[in-house]
Prior knowledge:
alpha+beta, four-stranded antiparallel sheet, 4 strands
Amino acid sequence: MLQTEYEFTLPLGYVDADGELHRDGTMRLATAADEILPLKDPRVRSNEAYLIVILLSRAVERLGSLPQVTPKIVEGLFAADLAYLQDLYNRINRVDWKGDDGPSSSLERSAGRELVPAGGS
């Protein structure tokens, strides 16, 4: 079965307006729409570097107890956490197909870190 969600723990964590720290989350594989639709966003059109903010706000399904991950939340991440999520996004969306078995196990071990499926198995 194709793994579509990956759990993560941010190196530092997002601190919300109430001072609560959010570190654990889940990111899903990106869809074609996740990569295409943000290109129409005026924030991306005026600043291409903003693309990762939109991409992550779409692909991060959960971050701590936050009800939703918005571009504003991604903007508020520490630089180390933004870099971590960008690296995770790039790793899980890289396709190393080996026949009909889906992505190769090298994806799961890339960068020396185990990618954990959502649900912990």
